Amino acid sequence: MKQCNLPLSNDDRKHLRAGETVLLSGTITTARDAAHSRLYEMLKNNQPLPIDLTTCTIYYAGPSPTPENSVIGSVGPTTAGRMDDYMPILLKMGLKVTIGKGKRSPEVKAAMKEHKAVYFTAVGGAGAYYAGCVKKVTLIAFEDLQSEAIRELEVVDFPVIVAFDTLGTDLYDR
């Protein structure tokens, strides 16, 4: 199993291959449907974004309420395809790494290949396990969206599988 520190460099990304299991450590940024819609509108209106797309790793997740004496509630992946309408512009603006579950559209796969982006898949139903990898949570933007607000998660040994690599190999098409 490969270990990678975030943010991933161009060199890190180019050496990842579809099907590899990777342990990520560093900062990941949660953003789901509602947050993506707002980011998209901000880009359309030439407004500054609350996150740096060139260095962030977006995790399609919205944590459940935090239990007492815990850092975060269950934080499992949501279906990546729900963000596909927003991906081409986010990739064009510098996004290089995403985490979710499930397939991506042909248009998104073409854009990821063009921009040398990587898509990791996380295991659905493992949100409680993933919560144990989170060491710190910081609210970044859109607090009114509650669980769909953008948060930074400091993670250690967060397990994912490379689902789409920079060569355009798709784990789901094997």
Task: Write a compact overview of the structure shown.
The protein has 174 residues and is an alpha/beta fold. Helix content is 21%, strand content 28%.
SSE map:
Blueprint: E1 2-5, H1 10-14, E2 21-30, H2 33-44, E3 57-59, H3 87-92, E4 97-100, H4 106-114, E5 118-121, H5 127-131, E6 134-141, E7 150-164
Parallel strand pairs: 1-2, 2-3, 3-4, 4-5
Antiparallel strand pairs: 2-7, 5-7, 6-7
Please provide a written account of the structure.
- This protein is α/β, with parallel strands linked by helices and 174 residues long.
- The chain contains five helices and seven strands.
- The chain has helices at residues 10-14, 33-44, 87-92, 106-114, 127-131, and strands at 2-5, 21-30, 57-59, 97-100, 118-121, 134-141, 150-164.
- Helix 2 links the parallel strand 2 (21-30) and strand 3 (57-59).
- The longest helix has 12 residues, at 33-44.
- The radius of gyration is 15 Å and the shape is globular.
- It starts with a strand and ends in a 10-residue tail after the last strand.
- The model has no long low-confidence stretch (mean pLDDT 96).
